[in-house]
Amino acid sequence: GAEVVFSVDCTKLKDYFLPEKREFDCIYFNFPHCGRKAGVVKNRELLAHFFHSSAEVLAEEGEVHVALCNGQGGTPADQPRREWHNSWQIVAVAAGAGFILSNVHPFNAETIHGYKCTGYRSQDKSFCVQGALNHIFTRSTAPPCSKPRSCETQLESQKVSFQVPQVLVDKINRGFLEPNSNHPVWTVKEKLTAGLSQAFPLQNIDSCLSLLQQGHLDGACHPNVFWITLSPGESPSAEEMSHRLANTVLSSPVDFCQDTDKNVQEGCHIPKQFYLRPSLLPHAQVIIQEGAFPPGTLHVLSGPVFRQCRVTPHSMPVFHEMLIVCAVHRGTESSWIQMLVNNIKTTIYSLHQTTSGTKASLNLQEATSFETTELDDFAAFESQLSKIQYLICMETDAPGSRVGVIRTSQELISRELVVIFASLNLDLLAMLLCGISDWRMLWTSDTRFLQQFPRGELRLFKSFSLYPPSYVHDVSFWVPDGEQFDEVAFHTIARRVSGEMVISIQLRDSFQQSGTGRRSLCYRLTFQSCDRALSCREAAEMQLHFREQIHQHLGVTLR
């Protein structure tokens, strides 16, 4: 019942099938080869043309199966693995046509009825298929939208709109914590809330918390925030801004913003710009000032927060914070902190056992036992917001295990009460519990991610993009004379121009020219996508764009 077509050129598949017959669910190419002693370069070219041809006749959710002899593919699945330059580089070649490697398994000729491994040196002889692998490719999603976009948010009684920073256009208003969500971040938040509510009186703050804040920032935090200018005609008056600032300031020791009167006395100016909230602490301050804050009741706030940061595997420009706030009687704060952590620990232990079958736990570490240089980006930024007493750490071998901080503040309500603030990074918790190695996967638009998480359940994540190719580019430049180089801005530009496809930025060399004193820096950038196809050409174009942007925005002189 099958139709067999002979003499088909695999690089021009659409020429052999009518348009209505071009939606194939599967395309198999077993052991492609140019013939005779063709080298790796010619066979890469053959594969490249084949993948482009397959893209024209494959169904949207179809698969392309390519079987290769042991070592040819150049992926870690090959044992032994060839050097990259001596392989067919199949994942990079496929990426050029918009495909990602979604599965790979041994090629077993015995299970295919009537199949014979023939064609050795274009003869009717069999060839060795021991260790051969079948590579299964699927279509990649399209690149995320990079067009500028505006966003609306509530600012007290007024709705305002603002231009979203380019690096965040695909991450604003994603609705991960909405009631109908099945995102693992939502599940972690709901499980933690359920556990806390069984032990303590609890109030969820469900009111709309503004994405914007304003106020005089402490110098340590200043480079790490995303500054925002409201759309024309929507900026509040100076009186309104002064009033709002006075009502959102956090007093010492939670000194995220400094006191307004003090700023005026010292000649500081109220900023005309707003910034995306880097923390939920100011919202907690407003709740405390409103007075409806009975001792012993937990108030839980949650939502996305935004921070400019360097490119590292667990540094996130946006993540979902869960802030637990509680007022307790002075002298009882230590026992309350331990009760809170024990409750969270029980929930995490249960979730981790469900997902991986192994034990995991949380512990408290005194922040004073760490130097600032020993803290990861999450903990380091929190310590800049205000003094932290404890780090909440997950006992696991995975990096990024510091998932929260605890701080206390005295005399915010009265001299008899101490306020406890426990801040948790829900994204890091979801990653550690579900075995997600790359934070960017949490934000993917590929439906294959959320399909793995039924509503209310956490499971171990299975990547649908295996062994993604990476591309390395260097950039060298002279730093402007007499200026401090802004490395955070440098990393943020890399995030923006690549659409979060730069996974590593390393300083390779620093050189000071004798006589002139000019300073030159050399950085190495590694481009790689965790969820979609990234070709060598795309990475090279991103690098060129990056060079233009750092020259334009940082004033460096390219070498």
From TrEMBL:
SMART domains: FDX-ACB. Pfam families: BMT5-like (PF10354), FDX-ACB (PF03147). Its EC number is 6.1.1.20. It is found in: Mitochondrion matrix. Coiled coil: none annotated. GO terms for cellular component: mitochondrial matrix. InterPro entries: aa-tRNA-synth_II/BPL/LPL, BMT5-like, Fdx_antiC-bd, Fdx_antiC-bd_sf. Keywords: Aminoacyl-tRNA synthetase, ATP-binding, Ligase, Mitochondrion, Nucleotide-binding, Protein biosynthesis, Transit peptide. GO terms for biological process: rRNA base methylation; translation. PROSITE patterns: FDX_ACB. It catalyses: tRNA(Phe) + L-phenylalanine + ATP = L-phenylalanyl-tRNA(Phe) + AMP + diphosphate + H(+). It is an enzyme of class 6 (ligase). One of its GO terms (molecular function) is ATP binding. Residues 466-559 form the FDX-ACB domain. PANTHER family: FERREDOXIN-FOLD ANTICODON-BINDING DOMAIN-CONTAINING PROTEIN 1 (PTHR11538:SF26), PHENYLALANYL-TRNA SYNTHETASE (PTHR11538). Belongs to the class-II aminoacyl-tRNA synthetase family. This is phenylalanine--tRNA ligase. It comes from Calyptomena viridis (Lesser green broadbill).
